[in-house]
Specification:
- InterPro entries: ZP-C, ZP-C_dom, ZP-N, ZP_chr, ZP_dom.
- Keywords: Disulfide bond, Glycoprotein, Signal.
- It comes from Albula glossodonta (roundjaw bonefish).
- This protein has 251 residues and is mainly β.
- A hairpin with a 4-residue loop joins strand 16 (190-193) and strand 17.
- Mean pLDDT is 79; it is low at 68-73, 97-111 and 241-251.
- It has one helix at residues 232-235, and strands spanning 2-6, 18-19, 28-29, 33-37, 46-49, 53-62, 77-85, 87-96, 107-108, 113-118, 135-136, 141-148, 155-165, 176-180, 183-184, 190-193, 198-204, 215-225.
- The radius of gyration is 24 Å and the shape is elongated.
């Protein structure tokens, strides 16, 4: 994140006596502004969380020469923060067919997430987007990964829900639940990685009954502060009487 302060907005601002939470991170300046650019896990940046956002906070403060006895500089305390929305919707599409395996188009939520298909449960080779769309044989396993693509530190990704529709519309009246309330609903789902910056899972390919040739998968994902037991991510699967939660995992 980048912070800029206009020099004329603070009387007596001494840019050579300013630093961030980490004293080793000082500010740069030009004729009109003092400024600093940092990654989200540097310069003493602190992570906080509210119901909707992850909030990264830091502060510009003044310091004095330790060898000085007096000062005529004003003290400076300028707090600043950067917010990231915790929730996003991501989408993938595949075409069921009784021929070699298939996947389709890459889907993105808000800039921090990526949803991709992989060739195997090893997740070592992503399906080349230039080959999309590809057909998937019915009942063959398809492998998917949802990943937080930005360098947001100290966070975990949680998949709250996934559903499939026969058309490119998440509000379609015809849908099939795959994950609900953090619980696997489809009994072919296998979760390969969770509780980290990415979520890897697989399931058997299927098709909707009727004149439908494609399957669209929509997932609702949440980023949470890692190590915080009060977050939705830490709660995990919240079973309800109507859900068939198989919770099958492979490590």
């Amino acid at each position: 994140m980048t912070v800029e302060v206009e020099k004329s907005s603070i009387i007596g601002l001494h840019e050579d006596h300013l630093h961030l939470n980490d004293p080793s991170c000082t500010l740069m300046s030009n004729a009109t502004h003092v400024f600093a650019t940092m990654s989200l896990n540097s310069c003493g940046t602190q992570l906080e969380e509210d119901a909707e956002n992850l909030i990264y906070k830091n502060e510009i403060t003044s310091f004095e020469d330790p060898s000085s006895v007096i000062t005529r500089r004003h003290e400076v305390e300028i707090g600043f923060s950067c917010e990231y929305s915790k929730t996003a919707e991501v989408i993938l599409e595949f075409t069921p067919h009784k021929l070699p395996f298939a996947f389709t188009e890459t889907g993105f939520g808000k800039f921090t997430y990526q949803f991709e298909f992989y060739h195997s449960s090893q997740f070592s080779q992503m399906v080349d987007p230039s080959t999309y769309p590809v057909d998937v044989p019915l009942k063959e396993m398809i492998y998917m990964e949802i990943e937080s693509t930005s360098s947001i530190p100290n966070t975990v990704l949680f998949v709250e829900s996934c559903k499939a529709t026969p058309e490119n519309d998440p509000n379609s009246n015809q849908y099939y639940d795959i994950i609900e309330n953090g619980c696997t609903v489809d009994d072919t789902v296998v979760v390969y990685a969770e509780n980290g910056p990415d979520y890897k899972f697989g399931m058997q390919a299927f098709k909707f009954i009727g004149d439908f040739n494609e399957v669209f998968i929509y997932c609702s994902v949440i980023l949470c502060k890692s190590g915080d037991p009060a977050t939705r991510c830490a709660q995990g699967c919240l079973n309800n009487p109507g859900a068939f939660a198989s919770q099958k995992k492979r490590r």
